[in-house]
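Morning run. Coffee first, then this:
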Amino acid sequence: MPSTPAIYRAAAQVASGLAPLLSLLSPKLAAGHRGRQGAAERLSAWGARNRDAARPLVWFHASSVGEGLQAESVLLELRRRCPAAQYVYTHFSPSAVPLARRLPVDVADYLPYDLSQPVERLLPALAPDLLVFSKLDLWPELAVRAAARGTTVALVAATVSPGSGRLRWPARALLRAGYQAVGAAASVSEEDAERLARLGVSPERIRVLGDPRYDSVVERIAGVSDGEPLLRFGRGAPTLVAGSTWPEDEAVLLAAFVRVRATHPTARLVLVPHEPTERHLLAAERVAARLRLPAPLRLSRAEDPVPLLLVDRVGVLARLYGAGSMAYVGGGFGRAGLHSVLEPAAWGLPVSFGPRWGESRDAAALLQAGAARALTGRRSAAVGDLAGIWAGWIERGDEGEAAGRRAKSLVEGGRGASARSAELLAGLISSARPRRSPSGARQDPA
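And here it is:
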């Protein structure tokens, strides 16, 4: 049976052994580690009770919320085509728990650590016909052992950034066996297809089908009703919604807000930190106080619009963008990387972001379409840039509205990848083939 490199298996064993210690450093890591404890047993128990051998089983895995939303749009399309199949969904990050709970699947849980023992327990219990990884979050031990049993391994929304660490040594060598196990890959672009081949996916198994995020974003925005309570925070005044921000973004945003308020005193700012921990929220409040801005009001206590709203909840950003007349997307200053610009674009908002946007294909497309503005230079220069852009969109509303229309048109034009990807997966389900046990003995397909 093909196998992952011994050094990968050793590294995975060490990483899982260190997980309890690393959990002490971060509540998020701790929550993820707790969730993975017993996940193999829970999923295996579901399989023993509920697996119907007469029906195909599709197993979707997506690490976190972003990958999960891409997987969701494909999963929903596939369910329409293959309603008789059973569906399993796993994730790695605790931030994906709310998404996993609302998905129309038969069972959802954390993915156990990528070790041979839990993998060998799960595969016979679930007996998946199709194992689908979203974006690039492929786990080699699981992929290799699943393929050896006759499960088709697939990738959807597959994208590999030019600077991805997976393309470099030693990650590329350690992960290669997993990518070689992929039987079908739906890549976002031709460039992604080329990089997938470098990782080990056979070129003849790759199809360029586009990005399901466009479908996901449009569907989510369309599902927001006019009566959504969050929309009230932007009514009656020009409002900038700043989403997924980090302290580096907030320093620029709040300083620029001081300048904008000097000439446009009715302007509002809705600040949505990427990680709204108490520590992060308090730090943002201290910066606002130092700049003598109106005291931020937290969303959990707000009833009416205020000059500066500080969001202390997760899961509301996509709806809150609908309250804005313009948007700023965080991550363009630090090392986290620029967050998704598609939600504000789908709302028809002009978008701004920090100078480190080069890894974002969507940001580049918005800039090229004249639908976004990127800040330049260091913090001091960026403050002036943002204040000028912000004030300009207030003073020349038609320019901002035109940019927003271009943004929305770009998102609408990207739709269709979910249907194409689901069609690919449905074809894989219908072409059932003999399975192989780990020993190589043939088994009849269910």
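The two ends are 21 Å apart (CA to CA). Good start to the day.
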